[in-house]
Amino acid sequence: MKILLSAGHGGTDSGSIGADKGKEKNRTIDLANRVAKYLKSAGHSVTVKQEKNLLGKWSMSNRRGYDYALSVHFNAFNGSAKGTEVLYKNTPKKATTMANKVAKAIGTTNRGAKNRTDLYMLNIGFDNLVEVCFHDNSNDLSKYNANIDNIAKAITDSITGGSTTSTVSKPSSKPTCTGDITYQTYDNKKKQWLPEVVNDRDYAGNLGNGLGGVRAKCKNGNIYIQTHVKGGSWLSTINSSAYSKNSNDGNSYSGIINKPIDGVKIWSDYGYVEYRVHLKGGKWLPWVKKADNTASGYAGIYGKEIDAIQMK
């Protein structure tokens, strides 16, 4: 298939503002690019454009060069409204499928497919316009941030009618993470790596000082870490095979030095890693147990800095 993805707004038009002060135009292009990645991996031809580059310059004649066209947006209203909806003019079946899949991937209310004949994007030939969630609703936004990859897959599957498999595998040649877990955190206030900690005999961090990096390893097998930067997004996965004590090499830890972390995901090849985080000026959150990064949940609260972590 030849597919066109339009990322809503752009340029001086920021679109709506989320609960975290994030701009709609930045979220739409990020999600559109994620969807494009999966579509291309499945063998489809994909063009991604920011909406500002289409307004007043696009017509039905341009649209005829594509098999399917989707416009990506995020809703905002009063901070309380929630849910996913997909708008259409002539494609109700595709819209219904997408609303079902995306709402399920996020874990929010399914507001369904809605017929609209007054929208510019639909009137110039776009098949659907997806309002992914209400990003001014902090609960919707938290769920979105925790499930971005699965949401991109849900949109991909809605377009193609296929099933996008997880990009994370559990190689049978690697042993379960066993034995002691050793880990270390970076103190943003002291601007240094703190001493290593083993298991839950202690915690890594200084209460009151935000964390800018986390690394971990176990005696046998691999540990994987993803961190979420406050006001930003989930970073790339770090493999414990690159663990290097006190190193600022970006491959050896997850985080961005001097940028506060507000979310953490940790898992191993097969078995579980249990971990919990402490919020700056707050308390320890419940223990989290994960076997892989497709499992739901993470440790932290978006917007709240983490200043310590424990693992076992």
Gross morphology is elongated
Strand arrangement within the widest β-sheet reads 2-1-3-6-4-5
Helix content: 10-25%
Distance between the termini: 47 Å
Low-confidence stretches: 165-176
Q: Tally the helices.
A: 6
Count of β-strands: 18
Written account of the structure:
The chain contains six helices and 18 strands. With 312 residues, it is of the alpha+beta class. The strands form four sheets. The chain has a six-stranded mixed beta sheet, with helices on one face. Strands 7, 8, 9 and 11 form a four-stranded antiparallel beta sheet that branches. Strands 10-18-15-16 form a four-stranded antiparallel beta sheet, with no helix packed on it. Helix 1 packs across helix 6 (148-160). The radius of gyration is 21 Å and the shape is elongated. The termini are far apart.
At a glance:
The chain is of the alpha+beta class and 312 residues long. The chain has helices spanning 24-41, 60-63, 92-106, 120-123, 138-146, 148-160; strands at 2-7, 45-50, 68-75, 84-88, 110-115, 128-134, 178-187, 192-193, 197-198, 204-205, 211-220, 223-229, 238-239, 261-268, 273-279, 288-290, 299-300, 306-311. α1 (24-41) packs across α6 (148-160) and α3 packs antiparallel against α6 (148-160).
Topology:
Layout: E1 2-7, H1 24-41, E2 45-50, H2 60-63, E3 68-75, E4 84-88, H3 92-106, E5 110-115, H4 120-123, E6 128-134, H5 138-146, H6 148-160, E7 178-187, E8 192-193, E9 197-198, E10 204-205, E11 211-220, E12 223-229, E13 238-239, E14 261-268, E15 273-279, E16 288-290, E17 299-300, E18 306-311
Parallel strand pairs: 1-2, 1-3, 3-6, 4-5
Antiparallel strand pairs: 4-6, 7-8, 7-9, 7-11, 10-18, 12-13, 12-14, 14-17, 15-16, 15-18
